[in-house]
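Structure in, sequence out. Go:
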């Protein structure tokens, strides 16, 4: 367990929960620059990068950390419309 607000501890949770929890955190905390998802479900290796592509965020890396993998996501804030539109 971690108390870091930029970490989604989804160890032991099955697809689609790691990505659902990632999406909720990004929605609820738009101030975060990066989010790390800790997951044991092998499906997260596909799901987290796919979610990043669909939502316009940047998948940074996947790191094996003992019994789980840490997926690092750079949260890309929507840019302001050009020309005030």
């Amino acid at each position: 367990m971690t108390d870091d607000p930029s970490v989604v501890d989804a160890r032991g949770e099955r697809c689609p929960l790691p990505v659902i929890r990632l999406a909720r955190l990004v929605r609820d905390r738009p101030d975060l620059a990066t989010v790390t998802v800790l997951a044991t479900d092998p499906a997260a290796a596909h799901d987290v990068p796919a979610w990043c592509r669909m939502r316009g965020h940047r998948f940074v890396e996947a790191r094996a950390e003992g019994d789980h993998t840490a997926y690092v996501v750079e949260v890309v804030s929507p840019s302001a419309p050009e020309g005030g539109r």
